Amino acid sequence: MNKPLKLTMHHDPGHAWLVVKCATVEKVLGTLTRISDYSYERGKSLYLEEDCDAPLFLQMCTAQGIEVEIEDRHSHRRSPIRSYDRINRPSPNRQPRDFNSHLGVPASPVA
Q: CA-CA distance, 8 to 54, in Å (whole number)?
Protein backbone atom coordinates (compact mmCIF):
# COMPACT_ATOMS: atom_id res chain seq x y z
CA MET A 1 0.00 0.00 0.00
CA ASN A 2 1.35 3.42 -0.95
CA LYS A 3 1.64 6.23 1.56
CA PRO A 4 -0.89 9.05 1.10
CA LEU A 5 0.24 12.20 -0.67
CA LYS A 6 0.44 14.82 2.09
CA LEU A 7 -0.38 18.35 0.92
CA THR A 8 -1.11 21.72 2.49
CA MET A 9 -3.98 24.07 1.66
CA HIS A 10 -3.16 27.69 2.54
CA HIS A 11 -6.15 29.97 3.19
CA ASP A 12 -6.30 33.74 3.48
CA PRO A 13 -9.50 35.75 4.03
CA GLY A 14 -10.39 35.66 0.32
CA HIS A 15 -8.95 32.54 -1.25
CA ALA A 16 -7.01 29.30 -0.82
CA TRP A 17 -4.27 27.39 -2.62
CA LEU A 18 -3.21 23.76 -2.56
CA VAL A 19 0.60 23.44 -2.54
CA VAL A 20 1.89 20.64 -4.78
CA LYS A 21 5.33 19.94 -6.24
CA CYS A 22 5.42 20.79 -9.94
CA ALA A 23 6.64 17.29 -10.84
CA THR A 24 3.72 15.74 -8.95
CA VAL A 25 1.17 17.90 -10.78
CA GLU A 26 2.73 17.02 -14.10
CA LYS A 27 2.77 13.31 -13.24
CA VAL A 28 -0.88 13.27 -12.13
CA LEU A 29 -2.28 15.51 -14.89
CA GLY A 30 0.12 14.42 -17.63
CA THR A 31 0.78 18.07 -18.47
CA LEU A 32 0.92 21.47 -16.82
CA THR A 33 -1.08 23.18 -19.57
CA ARG A 34 -4.35 22.26 -17.83
CA ILE A 35 -3.52 24.60 -14.94
CA SER A 36 -5.14 28.05 -15.16
CA ASP A 37 -3.37 31.35 -14.75
CA TYR A 38 -5.14 31.78 -11.40
CA SER A 39 -2.57 29.48 -9.81
CA TYR A 40 0.91 30.50 -8.74
CA GLU A 41 4.39 29.03 -8.76
CA ARG A 42 7.45 29.49 -6.62
CA GLY A 43 10.55 27.35 -6.78
CA LYS A 44 9.55 23.76 -7.47
CA SER A 45 6.02 24.15 -6.07
CA LEU A 46 2.72 25.14 -7.60
CA TYR A 47 -0.01 26.83 -5.60
CA LEU A 48 -3.22 25.52 -7.19
CA GLU A 49 -6.17 27.84 -6.74
CA GLU A 50 -9.11 26.39 -4.84
CA ASP A 51 -11.92 26.81 -7.39
CA CYS A 52 -10.68 24.97 -10.50
CA ASP A 53 -7.09 23.80 -10.40
CA ALA A 54 -7.00 22.16 -6.97
CA PRO A 55 -10.28 20.27 -7.59
CA LEU A 56 -9.01 19.12 -11.00
CA PHE A 57 -5.79 17.84 -9.44
CA LEU A 58 -7.64 16.10 -6.59
CA GLN A 59 -10.17 14.55 -8.98
CA MET A 60 -7.33 13.13 -11.09
CA CYS A 61 -5.64 11.79 -7.93
CA THR A 62 -8.85 9.99 -6.99
CA ALA A 63 -9.22 8.58 -10.51
CA GLN A 64 -5.66 7.23 -10.30
CA GLY A 65 -6.13 5.74 -6.84
CA ILE A 66 -3.82 8.25 -5.17
CA GLU A 67 -4.86 8.91 -1.58
CA VAL A 68 -4.41 12.54 -0.53
CA GLU A 69 -4.23 14.01 2.98
CA ILE A 70 -4.66 17.78 3.22
CA GLU A 71 -3.57 19.93 6.14
CA ASP A 72 -5.39 23.27 6.24
CA ARG A 73 -3.51 26.38 7.30
CA HIS A 74 -5.53 29.54 7.84
CA SER A 75 -4.38 33.14 8.08
CA HIS A 76 -6.36 36.28 8.80
CA ARG A 77 -3.92 38.28 6.68
CA ARG A 78 -3.43 38.56 2.95
CA SER A 79 -1.32 35.60 1.84
CA PRO A 80 2.14 36.21 0.36
CA ILE A 81 1.18 33.56 -2.21
CA ARG A 82 -0.68 36.35 -4.04
CA SER A 83 2.69 37.94 -4.84
CA TYR A 84 4.21 34.78 -6.37
CA ASP A 85 4.53 34.38 -10.13
CA ARG A 86 1.36 33.40 -11.96
CA ILE A 87 1.88 30.00 -13.44
CA ASN A 88 1.11 30.89 -17.07
CA ARG A 89 2.19 34.52 -17.06
CA PRO A 90 5.84 35.49 -17.37
CA SER A 91 7.07 37.96 -14.81
CA PRO A 92 9.59 40.67 -15.69
CA ASN A 93 12.21 38.77 -13.66
CA ARG A 94 12.20 35.45 -15.47
CA GLN A 95 11.69 33.71 -18.76
CA PRO A 96 8.33 32.02 -19.32
CA ARG A 97 8.27 28.31 -18.52
CA ASP A 98 8.09 25.97 -21.49
CA PHE A 99 5.08 23.86 -20.52
CA ASN A 100 5.43 21.67 -23.62
CA SER A 101 9.09 20.70 -23.18
CA HIS A 102 8.16 17.15 -22.18
CA LEU A 103 6.28 16.79 -25.49
CA GLY A 104 9.25 17.71 -27.66
CA VAL A 105 7.47 20.84 -28.85
CA PRO A 106 9.68 23.95 -29.15
CA ALA A 107 8.86 26.90 -26.92
CA SER A 108 6.90 29.76 -28.43
CA PRO A 109 8.80 33.02 -28.86
CA VAL A 110 7.90 35.73 -26.36
CA ALA A 111 6.35 38.82 -27.93
A: 11
